[in-house]
Automatic annotation (TrEMBL):
Keywords: ATP-binding, Ligase, Magnesium, Metal-binding, Nucleotide-binding. PANTHER family: 5-FORMYLTETRAHYDROFOLATE CYCLO-LIGASE (PTHR23407:SF1), ATPASE INHIBITOR/5-FORMYLTETRAHYDROFOLATE CYCLO-LIGASE (PTHR23407). This is 5-formyltetrahydrofolate cyclo-ligase. Its EC number is 6.3.3.2. Substrate binds at residues 59, 64. The keyword 4Fe-4S does not apply. Pfam families: 5-FTHF_cyc-lig (PF01812).
Length: 196
């Protein structure tokens, strides 16, 4: 397998390379830079979220960009925050309201989620983890289709990818069912795509 992502059209092979690149980036990242990353919302993203009532985040696993760090700022803006709950291994998940002080329950694939409470909510914005992204706003996920299905179920939601800058690739192959992201936030920049 080549180390040049431009030579890779197979998503499975690209996932392996993306995990290696992310792991290497994280190993060299200054601990202070890590602690400070993703604690603020850039003003263009905050502006796009003004009309959102509920924003879905995720709890970062291992070296994923930590979306949960955005929760305090979103709550200060008057937003409700939700987290995904994986329902089954077929790609189904729902979003449940969450507050950073609330306990989380273990879920499949080392995920954690809130209590079901009042049941699932429909987010106005979905912040999604990813393994890789490109400037065409394509997202390479883990391969389970959970976020592809969530984007399809919530077509009017703002789709935001959260990633470390090292996760950018020249090109991410897109299948017909892949919906492009509207924005991508890294620790160094906000990349804006099309309007929702």
């Amino acid at each position: 397998m080549s180390d040049d992502p431009r030579d890779i059209s197979d998503k499975a092979a690209l996932r392996i390379l993306a995990r290696q690149r992310r792991r290497a980036f994280m190993a060299g990242l200054d601990p202070l830079a890590h602690r400070l990353a993703f604690k603020a919302l850039p003003s263009p993203l905050a502006k796009r979220l003004e009309s959102a009532r509920t924003v879905a985040l995720y709890i970062g696993i291992e070296d994923e960009a930590p979306a949960q760090r955005l929760a305090a700022k979103l709550i200060d803006m008057g937003k409700a925050v939700a987290l995904p709950r994986v329902i089954d291994r077929l790609g189904s998940m729902e979003f449940l309201l969450w507050h950073p002080d609330a306990p989380l329950l273990p879920g499949p694939f080392r995920t954690r989620h809130p209590e079901r409470g009042e049941g699932p909510v429909s987010p106005d914005a979905i912040v999604a983890p990813l393994l890789g992204f490109d400037r065409a706003m394509n997202r390479l996920g883990q391969g389970g289709g959970y976020y592809d299905r969530a984007f399809a179920r919530h077509p009017d939601a703002l789709r935001v990818g959260l990633a470390w800058s090292a996760q950018e690739q020249e090109t991410i192959p897109a299948d017909p069912w892949d919906l492009p992201l509207h924005m991508i936030l890294t620790e160094v920049e906000l990349i804006e795509g099309t309007e929702p």
